[in-house]
Amino acid sequence: MGDREKIEVFDNPRPGRDYRITIHCPEFTSVCPRTGQPDFGEITVEYCPDGSCIELKSLKFYLQDFRNKGIFYESLTNDILDDLSGVCRPRWMKVTARFTPRGGITTDVEAEYMAER
Predict the structure, then answer these.
(1) Is residue 83 among the annotated active site residues?
(2) Distance of CA 64 to the CA centre of its chain
(3) Which residue of the set 3, 11, 18, 39 is catalytic?
(4) Is 88 a catalytic residue?
(5) Which pTM was predicted?
């Protein structure tokens, strides 16, 4: 899990409107917990903010914390969703992790959060 305390937010400039923010992080890296080999992929965060939005520089530093962590794709995708949704409390959020081929196999993992209304 990344360092949730690194994630900063700012006030949503249009809290009365539903709109989507999409963030692409094409240079994501982590480590395979079985082999110790690096995993390369892209993380995409889509969300409809409520009271706050994610500050991008802090998101970059948060994601860099995974660079040397041994973690399965499924865990890291859900950890990122839990951390981001826990900090900014969006109306809706989806995190998609797309990893480059390893042994001829690609993996995409999606996890979603929906606020209770």
Answers:
(1) no
(2) 11
(3) 39
(4) no
(5) 0.94
